Amino acid sequence: MARRKKIYEGKAKTLFEGPEPGTLVQYFKDDATAFNAEKRDVIDGKGVLNNRLSEFFMTGLANIGVPTHFIKRLNMREQLIKSVEIVPLEVIVRNFAAGSFSKRMGVEEGTPMPRPIVEFSYKDDALGDPMVPEEYIIAFGWASQQDLDDIISLALRVNDYLSGVLYGVGIKLVDFKIEIGRIYEGDFPRLIVADEISPDSCRLWDIETGRKLDKDVFRQDLGDLADAYTEVAKRLGVMPSNV
Ligand code: C5P
């Protein structure tokens, strides 16, 4: 069978041409990478879990009026998405100190932030996705001031939704990363949530025990990554049947 045209291959996902103009098929791989791909492995079932979890979160966001690229899940590993022009930023929201913030600022992991903090990294693997101030983003034309205001407001709405839904199943949303896409439908370009939302891109801690249920399990060799993601899927009631 003729394979669809590959548009882009990333570390954890591949994008193929979609069936209609303006659509793409997003394929979730089992590959896990950390520290800018210096550490890598293949985790059986991770792609299936992330496909299902990203569908769950993106659908929930659409239900509360937050626009996303997600159209529908096609099968265990693939979803149909809207093609967007990716804003070259990683938009990170932090509710509690962890990861690079703890390291940079010398703040103990788990310390609550005075309020959710939104920060930006420039998407560039060769540079290791450096953190950038808003001044760079506007001066280099990656986004306008209006875009940035809209991106921050989208990120905070995503934070409210994710924090609430995860808290309801006993999980603390420590931080997460989203990517934003520009879509040219109608008269004006719009900004929508793109890429994926999954335990690959969030820090999720069990509220009772503090157990880590996210990619830090892989980064820090804390055990079985698929087990951790399965726990998140089970609690949210979206466990795929044959992982
Ligand atoms: O490493 P750092 O503490 O900056 O990560 C903040 C959040 O962003 C974490 O949830 C991490 O999983 C996510 N992240 C990501 N992709 C990156 C960098 C960070 O999903 N390239």
UniProtKB/TrEMBL annotation:
Pfam families: SAICAR_synt. Pathway: Purine metabolism; IMP biosynthesis via de novo pathway; 5-amino-1-(5-phospho-D-ribosyl)imidazole-4-carboxamide from 5-amino-1-(5-phospho-D-ribosyl)imidazole-4-carboxylate: step 1/2. GO terms for molecular function: ATP binding; phosphoribosylaminoimidazolesuccinocarboxamide synthase activity. Its EC number is 6.3.2.6. It is an enzyme of class 6 (ligase). Residues 6-235 form the SAICAR synthetase/ADE2 N-terminal domain. One of its GO terms (biological process) is cobalamin biosynthetic process. Keywords: ATP-binding, Ligase, Nucleotide-binding, Purine biosynthesis. One of its GO terms (cellular component) is cytosol. It catalyses: 5-amino-1-(5-phospho-D-ribosyl)imidazole-4-carboxylate + L-aspartate + ATP = (2S)-2-[5-amino-1-(5-phospho-beta-D-ribosyl)imidazole-4-carboxamido]succinate + ADP + phosphate + 2 H(+). CDD domains: SAICAR_synt_PurC (cd01415). PANTHER family: MULTIFUNCTIONAL PROTEIN ADE2, SI:DKEY-6E2.2. Belongs to the SAICAR synthetase family. HAMAP family: SAICAR_synth. This is Phosphoribosylaminoimidazole-succinocarboxamide synthase. It comes from Halocynthiibacter halioticoli. The gene is purC.
